[in-house]
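Re: the pair you flagged

First of the two:
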Amino acid sequence: MTMQYLLAGFGGQGVLFAGKFLANKGLLEKKQVSWMPSYGPEMRGGTANCSVIISDELIGSPIVSTPDVLAALNQPSLNKFEKAVKKGGTIFVDSSLVNRKVERDDVTVVYIPAARLASDNEVPDLANMILLGKLLSDADEGLIKEILLQSVSSNRQDMIDANLKAFLIGKNYE
């Protein structure tokens, strides 16, 4: 089985970290993984997206042109990538930053006010993890802690608990 993910938003929203987190999840599950970040020259505030492929088989190309899953953390990302999602795929939308509904009716859509939840729960920079929590809502908490240990840089280890808190907010959001 192969799953192709596209995570997209503004630079500074943690899109690349979210992709790294997904890739590390695949590695811990002994899968084949491709992680390809892409960002505009502005970095913070510019466009950022990340393609992740997790597969049981060798991955021929890291390019994700028709993702199974799109995580849109802002309006421009939804506008740009909505049409690319495979028929039957899933689109996760940060509904606190996107002011329109998904126009397609051949995909599953999950709306979660990730940025608002992050602010309300005192983890203002972790809307990316709240959205990932919803996306990976079937993941075991022990596995999530292990992924965080691999994904968070050594000089940011103090952020592991906050990232886990944000992930669980998303996981438990109804």
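Second of the two:
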Amino acid sequence: MLGTLNRAQIDNLLVSQVHGRLGFTDNGKTYIIPLTYAYDGECIHVHTIEGLKINAMRRNPNVCFQVEQIDDMAHWQCALVWGTYEELKEDDAEDSLQLLINRVHPLMTSDTCRPKHGLDKQRHSRDSKSPVTFRIRVENVSGRFEKRVNY
């Protein structure tokens, strides 16, 4: 059975996951990249470093975000979020980063999962890329699911 997720189901899916895909455009090209995130019920929070995606979203803040949970080919959920990129500074950035750390830290299982940037200001040099904390303010959502029904 195919179906449409309601807003509560979409919010539950966004809260339950920590990996999603960010979609944005730059100079006529569309990009889709994986991200680790935390969802607070209104915004998707992300911590990263400056680069193509940040520069592109500064120029065009209209983005989309996709998250999914796939148990198997007959049992899955997928949500799309459309929203606006908002770069965070000072207290807002600290609060967002803390939300992300609290959500992701219990899931870390190895050193390769631990952030290498932005958390230890002593290690940040002038030559390295600057850390950026941002949120996507959710404006519109859509979701679908499939669930096999045994008759």
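The longest helix spans residues 90-104.

-B.
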